Records
---
Amino acid sequence: MAMQSRNSSLRNMVKTQYNQQHMGAAYGPYGQMTQAPQVQTMRIDDVIVRTVALVGATFVAAILTYGMVGSGDSASVGTAGMLMTLGAVVGLGVIIFSMFKPITNPFICFAYAIGQGLLLGGVSAVFEAQFPGIVVNALLGTILVFAGMLALYRFRILKNSPVFTKVIIGAGFGIFALTMVNLVASMFGANLGLFASPGGDPTTLQWIIAIGITLWAAFSFILDFDMIEQSAQMGAPKKYAWAGAFGLTAGLIFLYWNLLRLLSYFQSN
């Protein structure tokens, strides 16, 4: 089965690399056999190591702003607010960039992980103050959902396919557009009623949106797993291990955000 990557440039790159490695030797000017230059290829282990590093960076950055917001000190909260804003801008910029080109630069990957960690930590502290224990539950839920989706993919209970890819990608663009519209509207003081505020009473529409986005976040891991597996099998250059790690890290962060929101709905009055 041809690789169904979410990024066409990655798919084309993998095919090109595969052809270069399997075409064999070429004749030189005097009939000598010359071997094509070999490129160090990525392995699944490379993706795992990089993912652990990015998730670790996210966690460390989150602890920083979590402690600052949780301290209640006005100066610390103000500093945390600036860091969270910076993290949100960096994260949004990298995500938009990743829609057009795979992220293979480790500095960009870490900038995203740290930026999201700064934002995640501060917001988590706010949710934890209002709903004690919600952060631990959201973290545990993220780990369990990820492990469950990995098991479903590993045992081929869930498989990627062209139709599955189109549905997930189409829904992803829809979710991104919905989020951006809600963000722009909120900047102008308008409330579209798509997401309930912490402690509010969610409407039926808000429940549907929260559950739908959380399910999308879970099932999108199937595309990431397939991309990583197929890329490794087809001999993608090692630098693309960062693209795989970035995808998994972004997916974990997005899943955590949505589980945090969904759990707050269950605890709302």
Note: The chain has eight helices and two strands.
---
Amino acid sequence: MLKIAYRKEYAHPLPENHRFPMIKYELLPEQLIYEGTVTESSFFSPNLLSEEDILAVHTNEYWQKLKNLTLSRKEERRTGFPLSAALIERERIINQGTIDAANFALEYGVAMNIAGGTHHAFTDRGEGFCLLNDIAIAAQYLLKNAKVSKILVVDLDVHQGNGTAEIFRDNPDVFTFSMHGKGNYPMHKERSDLDIEMEDKTDDKTYLTVLRENLPKLIDDEQPDFIFFQSGVDVLATDKLGRLGMTINGCKERDKIVFEHCHLNEIPVVASMGGGYSEKIAHIIEAHANTYRLAQDIYF
């Protein structure tokens, strides 16, 4: 059974002017159940992430600022969210969801988090709607508990996974691969283990060719025993923040490539949702839903 982390707090407690496109966190589970891709039994409710797991990745100074709501106005603006205790609770729930999904992936081969993909969170700061880095926290959890020995991060959000790159810069047990828009946020890029920059208006054929050329080679070279997939759909041509030129079908094929290679090589994979900011919510939901449909079809 496909296991998916979700709680109603994923869409709350954001103020009204931040609700779109965050409403996708409510609509996506409803769509997946309505169409019969999954049932309610597929969803599980994560609890609060422990401080121990937070501090395995983030600095104590930064965590205390989050915990005590003492970020400076500049630091708060950088995150893109108004700081609140409820927001910090939301972040802890989402991050625990990725850890729980990782454990389910070890059992079933694949698992998902309706939220997450918070790849702009650094060891000591948050950026770009990311406060705690769920991929990094879950990866560190797996390594610390000797559940895996080598992790590959496949970050296909349109924005570089700069926080993840910084966190694992000197860690040979985690290979960070980010395929992102060259001219997009963040303007100052960190150095991942492999960065591939795509030009504005990159179409399906060009993007998918590059992915097909690189992902199998990375798996062969690095021999990971676990993969974290940041499956942002802001690569779409309709995305307000994306600047690439991909279609919904092209984005679906991207996800299919990732899941099929994980399945073929028997590498457990967790997919975190990542970004998606198209003008029409229907485009966002359809593109994200394809990720879950493919996981269900390929694995179950």
Note: The longest strand covers residues 174-181.
